Amino acid sequence: MSLSIRAAAITDLADLAAWNAAMAWETEHKRLDPAILQRGISGVFEEPRRGFYLIAERDGVAVGSLLVTYEWSDWRCGDFWWIQSVYVIPAARRGGVFRALYTTVEQRAAAAGAAGLRLYVETENDRAQTTYAELGMQRCPYFMYEALLPGRAGKLP
Length: 157
What we know:
By secondary structure, this protein is α+β, with helices and mostly antiparallel strands. Helix content is about 35%, strand content about 25%. Its EC number is 2.3.-.-.
């Protein structure tokens, strides 16, 4: 079975929205507002400076995706590429899909002169943490904090 990685297109919106909603439920038990989610995904295609999605296909059928966004680092004078919104359909898990997506991101980031790759993972998701470590990623010495602004659309419970 052949596995290939391609850039996502706006025609992938339905899959990306469904997978993001599934990922939010599986990892955080959060229900995402479908209209806001679709606008959020569309916003990446409308403004490429925000990032890009990749799609993994097995024998021509989409089986997973991820989003890459950018964070400027003044300390390193370069962008970190953040891997986000990772999803692999259940039937394709443990079959090298994420590894292929990651390898593609790593190659693109190196070619673009990025400072490095980053991602965040749920503290209880031991399987994902093991996978990331096997790919050579290291746990950072930082905690993540957030403050949502009042009246912002898309606020989650």
